[in-house]
Amino acid sequence: MATMKLILGIESSCDETGVAIYHAERGLLAHALHTQVAMHNEYGGVVPELASRDHIRRMLPLIRLVADEAGCCLQDLNAIAYTQGPGLSGALLVGASIACSLAYSLNIPAIGIHHLEGHLLSPLLSDSTLKFPFIALLVSGGHTQLMRVDGVGKYTLLGETLDDAAGEAFDKSAKLLGLCYPGGPELAKLANQGRPGRFHLPRPMQHSGNLDFSFSGLKTAVLTLTRQHTLDEQTRADIAYATQEAIVEVLTTKSLAALKQTGLSQLVIAGGVGANQHLRAQLNEAASKSGFRVFYPDLEFCTDNGAMIAFAAVLRLQEQEMEGDYRFNVRPRWDLQQLNYSE
Ligand code: KG4
Ligand code: ZN
User: Fold this and answer.
1) For 212-240, what is each residue's pLDDT tens digit?
2) Which part of the chain has CATH 3.30.420.40?
3) Band (2; pLDDT cuts 50, 70, 90)
């Protein structure tokens, strides 16, 4: 697909409007993000209708900004990639309708990308030493999955959460500690003041013998702790410390088990929770002990962004020819394994 060089990527699955322009040979030319965190903050979580309306407001100015920064005009684009799912349906529809109508007007293909495929390939954006096959730990606000990745579009699910996602466990525990949404980074910050050893929280399914996770019991244990103690600043920090430690230990143990089970030696951490410094420290320590390599996307590409969507589209276009189709059909729920286009 020699002609498919310049791709606009659009992300609008949740509370971040992300736009980027990626060149197949020159790499990422420009990217911009508007986060709705401040807007949703006062409600303690994402309000889907507000998210959709804000995506509508932000998307076109961001596209203009990114095109200016990349030094190109829309007529130079060869394709437009957008997040087709999973995510909030209204929010997805904004990105899909803008991408498809713009692509139609420019007579170029519109390509629907799986949000998690974007996350899972994002470490390749900044590190060309990563090679297939590898294990990917996808840890976001909505997902916790261990995948075996044999190539672009060749994904095998090894294990996943049976209830809450790791990000959700961070966010819900943070809420119980009176922290702002999104709670993950806030809880991590508070945990820095926490003392080890005062509280010990359960490590759900750590030794279950499979690669599945469960985090809802942890949230209940945090709730119990918050009811049993006076929540002074130090106690909140100690609970935050114990919560982060429990989540990180389970994620680390299961990732190591996935590497062992498959015999692979590269681990990719993708999704918003991948920004967690304690998780990174634990995995780095395990990697140097056990002799595997661990890859993280640059911090700005760990959370939702348009660059990963444009990049995933570039990789897919190198693998298979894709027809332009302007009938958009968002997929709020979408199994990553359905993407396997090797079969
Ligand atoms: O991938 P992402 O940006 O959006 C989803 O697709 O969900 O992930 C957002 C999640 C939220 O749950 C947020 O609290 C969590 O990632 N997160 C963190 C950190 N930064 C973001 N969790 C723990 N520590 C962090 N530093
Ligand atoms: Zn995400």
Assistant:
1) 999 999 999 999 999 999 999 999 999 99
2) 6-120+302-338, 131-296
3) very low
- Cα separation of 166 and 142, whole Å? 8
Any atom of ligand 1 within 6 Å of the Cβ of 191: no
CA dihedral 259→263→265→270, nearest 10 degrees, is -40
> If pLDDT is split at 50, 70 and 90, which confidence band does 3 have?
low
Residues 62 and 90 sit within 8 Å (Cβ to Cβ): no
Please identify, in words, the CATH class of the domain defined by 6-120+302-338: alpha beta
**Residue 11 C-alpha to ligand 2 middle, in angstroms?**
9
**Three-state secondary structure string covering 135-171:** EEEEECCCCEEEEEEEECCEEEEEEEECCCCHHHHHH
Helix (H) or strand (E) run with residue 312 in it: helix 307-319
CA of 272 to the centre of ligand 2 (A): 6
Cβ–ligand 1 distance for 185 under 6 Å, the answer: yes
Nearest residue by C-alpha to atom 10 in ligand 1: 141
What mean pLDDT comes out for the span 3-26? Answer: 94
Query: Looking at the domain covering 131-296, what would its CATH class be?
Result: alpha beta
Closest of 286, 295, 325 to residue 81, by C-alpha: 325
The CB of 36 under 6 Å from ligand 1? The reply is no
57 Cβ partners below 8 Å, 6+ apart? none
Q: Are 244 and 278 a contacting pair, CB within 8 Å?
A: yes
Q: What is the pTM of this model?
A: 0.91
Query: Which tens digit of pLDDT belongs to each residue from 62-88?
Result: 999 999 999 999 999 999 999 999 999
Give the whole-angstrom CA distance, residue 173 versus residue 154.
Answer: 34
